[in-house]
Amino acid sequence: MNFICDQREHQPKGYTRHEVTAPRAAGPSGRTSLFHHADFSKTIPPQHGILPTMNTSISSTHSTIIPSLRYRDALAAIEWLVTAFGFKKQAVFVGPDKKTVQHAQLTFGNGMIMLGSVDNGGEAGKFMVQPDEIGFRETQGAYLVVPNADTIYATAKAAGAEMIIDIRDMDYGGRHFSCRDLEGHTWGIGTYDPWAEPELKPKP
Description:
- 13% of the residues lie in helices and 28% in strands.
- It is of the alpha+beta class and 204 residues long.
- Strands 1-5-6-7-4 form a five-stranded mixed β-sheet. A four-stranded mixed β-sheet has the order 8-11-10-9, with helices on one face.
């Protein structure tokens, strides 16, 4: 099963593509695709009702888990995330009013988040609330792996981030802090890389 979406197909009717900074791949039909398509043909059939891991089947994609967020002022949030954390704009679709973000994609290393305006008319919006509607509590958060947590701490604090766990060295390794962004979403930023090979300590 291939999922192909070129600019014209993905762009909502009546909305304009505001900005794209990343190159796009060509699909099987020769058309330029906004997204890479995944090949699920090598997926192993499930045994005993257990779905197998699919990491090897879709290794051609950059990030297979993409957090999705909503903001009341999504355009301001995009600029804030770029300034405070170092995200890069990959695609931003803005409505006819030049204020509503129908859909945006921001990259960070080989990861990505998707976001949009709270009032963009999407179906998923009715299942989501904003942090200030539930006492600034959250049921999930995003973690950014960075080479230097102190650098991001400085830029985030300068951008007005509220530090909820101040920066410190962690007992499990790495340096970490947690903060709220301009609309209260929580972020963890640290140098601990769960993908890195563990350091082998010499035997005494």
